[in-house]
Amino acid sequence: MQLGRLTVSNYRAIQNAAVDFDDVTILIGENNAGKSAFLAALDLFFASSPRVLPTDYYGGDTSIPIAVTIEFVGLTPAERDQFSNNLVDDRLIVTRTFHPDLGKGHGGYSVDRLVHPDFSACRAEEGARAKREIYDALRERFGLPAVTRAEDVEAELDRWEEANPSTYHGSGCLDSEVSRT
Q1: What pLDDT, in 10s, does the model give residues 16-57?
Q2: Are 160 and 90 in contact (CB under 8 A)?
Q3: Are residues 91 and 127 in the same domain?
Q4: Do both 59 and 122 map to the same domain?
Q5: Is 113 in contact with 88 (CB distance < 8 Å)?
Q6: Residue 181: inside a domain, yes or no?
Q7: 179 lies in a domain?
Q8: Mind listing the pLDDT tens digit for each residue in 79-126?
Q9: pTM listed for this prediction
Q10: How would you label 89-125 residue by residue, b for 16+ Cβ within 10 Å and e otherwise?
Q11: 8 burial class (0-12, 13-18, 19+ CB within 10 angstroms)?
């Protein structure tokens, strides 16, 4: 797998910018244009014990999180198989977010994936009863199996999406699965 794109938000001299990578990529620019900030953001993304200071936030504004997103391209067949549920147009898109107010979530990773837009409300619902009610309405439209527990809803939606990618790929939307470090 290779880096295809690096997007950085609210980090040092970069409010929001991206760099596309090729086989050889050269960063050229004036002093204080953000060249070193891109490289430091790349290092921050992969750091096992990242240190983020208040001065690392663009303009010192710690109310807006720092986000470092990498789009991985050129995945091997084994990598495509491993990450099949999280590929968007054959790319793996991973974001690491830093925000001091998140406590344990500071430095958490999220992975984008293409999802059916009609399932978003069901996934976003936190109440078990309401989640099952929304799911039951989706069952009729999409032929989903019955579930008795709200905890089973996500797995059934995932199974349906995996079995029917061509029915929503063109009109799908991105969603993120979050894991905390």
Answers
A1: 999 999 999 999 999 988 899 999 999 999 999 898 999 999
A2: no
A3: no
A4: no
A5: yes
A6: no
A7: no
A8: 999 988 788 888 999 999 998 776 555 788 888 877 888 998 998 899
A9: 0.72
A10: eebbbbbbbbbeeeeeebbbbbbbbbbbebbeebbeb
A11: buried
